[in-house]
Write a structure and sequence with these properties.
globular, 512 residues, 4-stranded antiparallel beta sheet, 5-stranded antiparallel beta sheet, 9 strands, alpha+beta
């Protein structure tokens, strides 16, 4: 997913799956020099309310003290004061599309889990700077793009989102000061990123040179296996090699997945440490036109040996059978270029030319059969084995957009937003059942709203007296298991954070 898009005012990224523009650099002095000493001048146009026809006091109003502290996603907990009747949910026409503003408003009002999002980003039930100094960026329905939005509490975030009704929004770092106050600070160095989740980005367009079933923004179940393999390899490395615990994978809504690592150690990493972790996981190098993309030392690093064990079981079915990557003569030549012995290559080429329809699985088996037949007198068996291992890695190992992981200042799409291109919700992926995750089965926003209506209609028919347990709207839909998983993940994170806080408060009992 692209990571260096322009952040000009009034524009949004052309590709809906892309990572949006970076926040200011950790050393703001360089950018300030370009902006005449104003640390926010390069983004000032984005904040101009007239560009999006919104009053200034409405856009930055933070004075609503009557909202509930943790509003639920149900319609009964709207932005209105408790003394007012609950707002009626927006009326959705039967033919409404997921991109229609009234559909998005109904989704935010009835289904978006603001409370759990707040707890996840705040690391506590009580509001703190972890949330209050966090940057949010909104892409509005008219494609205007608003940066440096911040909110003290979840209900104020919810209120602003219901007011602005963005098509999507992104999450940035926690700053040393409130992002809204960045222009009022005397020293530009007083405004810099402080913490941010460590993130990873997997995008199927990075696999276009090896996936044969789809390309560009299109996906199917066959090529989604690349994402499954990537999640397996990266997740176990983050847990076993780095000791991270609070890792959440989120479907991007179309053709990829994002990893969010919320451990305190990860959040406090500077850019050099983030770069080191990304480099540790990066194996595939070189563009589409380059030759051999895997060049690793022997003996294999334990991480790579473990990755091979994980990936070998996928190689036969997901690569050789489903992708059939060397079906054509041109594709077969690419395979031959990755093998180390010329005599063996000539024999393989001759055999494959005599059988034009030979499958990739058969061609892969031919390598060993001809090698054992003694076709090449000078064949180095060890070199051939290593070459085959490199080929397995090249066709299965995760292709990460490592630039997304290297800097604190990257903005990344929030979990549970709606992808503007597909209407699918960006739901968490349960890594315990990662192979069962179906990206094409993730509910769309219009389907979810329809499920609420169906539930309500059925309840009224079965219980005309109205004596039924009241449920939040998300509990009436297929979004429920994803929200429940998110709640469990957040609960585990809060438990760890509370333990860390107690240790910090108690201090060392041996100190005087």
């Amino acid at each position: 997913m692209p990571h260096s898009l322009s952040s000009e005012a009034g524009t949004s990224p052309a590709d809906e799956d892309s990572v949006l523009p970076d926040a200011p650099p950790a050393n703001p002095e360089a950018s300030d020099a370009e902006n005449g000493g104003d640390p926010g001048a390069s983004h000032a146009a984005m904040q101009e309310p007239s560009k999006v026809h919104i009053k200034l006091e409405d856009l930055f109003g933070d004075d609503d003290d009557e909202d509930e502290e943790f509003p639920s996603s149900g319609v009964a907990h709207g932005a209105a004061p408790a003394s007012s009747p609950p707002p009626s949910p927006p009326q959705i026409a039967p033919s409404a599309k997921y991109s229609d503003p009234e559909v998005m408003l109904a989704f935010y009002q009835r289904l978006f889990p603001f409370r759990y999002l707040f707890q996840w980003l705040n690391h506590s039930m009580k509001p703190s700077n972890d949330f209050g100094h966090r940057e949010f960026a909104f892409t509005l329905q008219n494609d205007a793009y608003l940066r440096y939005q911040s909110f003290p509490t979840s209900d104020l975030l919810r209120k602003d989102i219901l007011h602005l009704n963005p098509s999507r929004f992104e999450i940035g770092p926690v700053y040393t000061a409130n992002p809204r106050d960045r222009k009022t600070l005397r020293k530009s160095t007083a405004f810099r990123p402080l913490t941010k989740e460590l993130v990873f980005d997997i995008d199927l367009t990075d696999y276009d040179e090896i996936r044969t079933c789809c390309d560009k923004a299109n996906i199917c179940h066959k090529c989604w296996s690349f994402v499954t393999m990537a999640i397996k390899v990266v997740d176990v490395a983050l847990r076993d090699d780095f000791g991270f615990e609070h890792i959440m994978w989120v479907y991007s809504g179309r053709r990829g997945a994002h990893a969010w690592i919320s451990d305190k150690r990860a959040r406090k990493m500077d850019d050099q440490k983030r770069k080191a972790v990304a480099g540790y996981l990066e194996v595939i190098k070189g563009g589409a036109q380059s030759g051999k993309k895997v060049n690793v030392k022997r003996p294999l690093h334990p991480h790579l040996a473990r990755s091979l064990d994980i990936l070998k079981e996928h190689f036969q079915k997901d690569i050789l059978e489903d992708q059939d990557p060397w079906a054509t003569p041109e594709q077969a030549e690419r395979l031959l270029r990755l093998l180390p012995d010329k005599a063996l290559n000539d024999a393989l080429r001759k055999k494959w030319e005599a059988a034009p329809g030979r499958s990739s699985a058969s061609k892969w088996a031919d390598i060993d059969s001809l090698a054992k037949a003694g076709i090449s007198k000078n064949l180095d068996g060890k070199a051939l084995l290593e070459a085959k291992q490199d080929i397995v890695l090249e066709y299965t190992y995760p292709r990460l957009d490592v630039e997304v992981s290297k800097k604190q200042i990257h903005l990344l799409k929030s979990p549970f937003v709606v992808h503007p291109g597909t209407g699918r919700v960006c739901v968490p992926i349960d890594t315990r059942r990662v192979e069962r995750f179906d990206p094409l089965g993730v509910p769309t926003v219009t389907e979810l709203l329809g499920e609420i209506d169906s539930w309500d209609t059925g309840i009224k028919e079965r219980n005309p007296e109205g004596d039924v347990k009241k449920l939040q709207d998300y509990e009436k839909t297929s979004l429920k298991p994803y929200v429940d998983y998110f709640r469990t993940h957040v609960g585990s994170l809060l438990k760890t954070e509370q333990g860390v806080k107690r240790e910090r408060d108690d201090g060392d009992p041996m100190e005087f």
